[in-house]
Amino acid sequence: MREKFFDEQERIAPEERQRRQLQSLQEALKRAYDNAPSTKELFDRAGVKPSDIRTVKDLEKLPITRKGDLIELQRSNPPYGGFLTIPSEEVDRVFITPGPIYGPHHTEGISWFGKSFYAAGFRKGDIVINTPTYHMSPAGILFHEGIRACGATVVPTGVGNTDAQIRTMLDLKVTGYAGMPSFLMTIIRRAEEMGYDFRRDFSLKRAWFTGEMLPSSLRKTFEEDYGISTFQCYAVTDLGGCVAYECSEKSGMHFMDEYIIEIVDPHTGKQLPPGEVGEIVATPLHNDTWGLIRYGTGDLSSYLTEPCPCGRTSWRLSGIVGRAADAVKVRGMFIIAKQAEGVFSEFDQISRYQIIIGHKQQRDELVFKIELKDESIDKKNLSDSLAERFPQVCRVRPDRIEFVPQGTIPEERQTIVDERKWK
Ligand SMILES: [Zn+2]
Hints:
Low-confidence stretches: none
Bound molecules: zinc ion
Distance between the termini: 54 Å
Helix content: 25-40%
Structural class: alpha/beta
Strand order of the largest sheet: 5-4-6-7-8-9-10-15-14
Shape: globular
Largest sheet: 9 strands, mixed
CATH architecture of the domain at 328-418: 2-Layer Sandwich
């Protein structure tokens, strides 16, 4: 299994990768169509046969299935929603995620996370605490297998027990961490409270993160203050695995060859070009258990096609910027609530704000309503700085910035209000 992570495989010429992936896609679609009744129904309703899908672009002919659809389908057709492609007695294990969604797995074949741990530098000789849950959800076990596939030793510490994690890290001279960034910070802070000098007393050299955003300020703290090299992985529970991962360049997450990854407009399902933000949609190529295709993750990202200095030739996700449900499209660009909030939080003078989207003379109109902490400040200056800063992050220019009296904007409010009327 280990040769799967050899860099040779990941350095293949892009055209060769494309050729192999298309072939795997056709096989995967046929396998799903022939064996999973729900997948067949989905094709039939769209009037498409697996042989009609000859390119990645052709996938647009098929609808996107999202978490909500999966929950509904499993409820009406228990337990697997008609997506199982093998006889049920051949299922090795079933993971359960909120919904509930039952995810059948076959343990043969690819290790879902090994590539990601390998790219993060995990090797034989490393001792790794694996801190996600080992119950119900696939996280603990799949990460565990990925770490093992790189030859490293795993300590299955699971969730919580900060003090016990700290004792373990000291006693076993733990060199690696797998889990969420916030929990590693909790461990470090607690160790400091206990009187340790983290850098001197601990052996932690690398940390592999998933399940949570890694703000660049936090990454900097880990790397510069504590000497921990950090890596991110983008995993999707309902797909049972790692979809993209960072290499030593830490500049975007390489697509896993085991999926066709599309970035689409969440409203139309149409594919977007590199650099444009849209929803991540993934189709597994080598999952012989589960016939899920075009799974819409609800996560927003864009992708890069430039070659990576690490030598891997796969494209990269530029990072997860938010959830499709929290994003609104304005003049062709998504404004994501979280990103917008980040911009406003840079301006101390603002107490409350709201982003209003309207439509005037065939054009989307973007207006900021702002309440100030102190109304006597230089409004023009603030207005200019905000109008300059906002498009740097959200890529759309505000048309107007209105200052409103204190108390105008309700305390409990949506960040973005879409007032456009759709006919
Ligand atoms: Zn790379």
